[in-house]
Prior knowledge:
53% strand; 7-stranded mixed β-sheet; single chain; mainly beta; 4-stranded antiparallel β-sheet; 0% helix
Amino acid sequence: xxxxxxxxxxxxxxxxxxxxxxxxxxxxxxxxxxxxxxxxxxxxxxxxxxxxxxxxxxxxxxxxxxxxxxxxxxxxxxxxxxxxxxxxxxxxxxxxxxxxxxxxxxxxxxxxxxxxxxxxxxx
Length: 123
């Protein structure tokens, strides 16, 4: 069993940077894949980035690589997502997810989800 809680969301201005954090509790093993998804109003849940709990592999969604960086925060037992040069179209609820299996961008594969954190980019 794994529990996930996101934090770090808020209202930011275009061009700002933001770091979201997913606090992980329970007993994830090296078999686990952790990921960030986001969902804007009226849109599907999109894969942003994923990382193996071992932190040996990462993957990014379409058009995500470059401004988004996923990393394992060993000190806080968390998975962080850093977003640079935020744009209004980045406005969404950002979710952390986990499951025991290969790195994948399919939301349906993930068994564990956090409640989400709202990111609003507005001038």
